[in-house]
Amino acid sequence: MAVVVMAILAVSAITGCSSGSSFTGSWGDDAPGEPSLRIESDGAFSGTDGCNPLKGTGTISGDTFTFGPFASTLKACEGVTPWLNLASTAKVDGDTLVVYRTGGDEIGTLEKR
Q: Are the beta carbons of 15 and 9 closer than 8 angstroms?
């Protein structure tokens, strides 16, 4: 019986690690002009680059979140650098979401809320 319970716990732990749950939740700052992002367990995401809202669906595979096509407006906002709308992939590093553009260059970070 103990072996069965241990096996179930081991499978649950492995499944939990591969589910991408570290990506889910809110990232960034809700303050005006600041980027923020919310990622759901199914890969749906929404947020703002600090000026323009964005929304789409991505995929979670291992330690990488890949942004799929997303909709965003392109209005200019004084004092805001809209880097989040260039996102291609992201990885979690502790309580930080590190965001990369196509080609692998880091373009910004968002802290877990």
A: no
State the CATH number of the domain containing residue 6. 2.40.128
The range of the structural domain enclosing residue 42 comes to: 2-111
User: How many structural domains is the chain composed of?
Assistant: 1
Query: Do 48 and 63 contact (CB within 8 A), yes or no?
Result: no
* pTM of the predicted structure, to 2 decimals: 0.79
Q: Give the residue among 86, 66, 54, 55 at the shortest CA–CA distance from 20.
A: 66
In sequence order, which residues have a C-beta less than 8 Å from that of residue 66 and are 6 or more positions away? Answer: 58, 59, 88, 89
CA contacts within 13 A on the Cβ side of 56: 18
| Per-residue pLDDT tens listing for the chain (113 residues) | 443 333 333 333 333 344 446 999 999 998 999 999 999 999 999 999 999 999 999 999 999 999 999 999 988 889 998 899 999 999 999 999 999 999 999 999 999 99
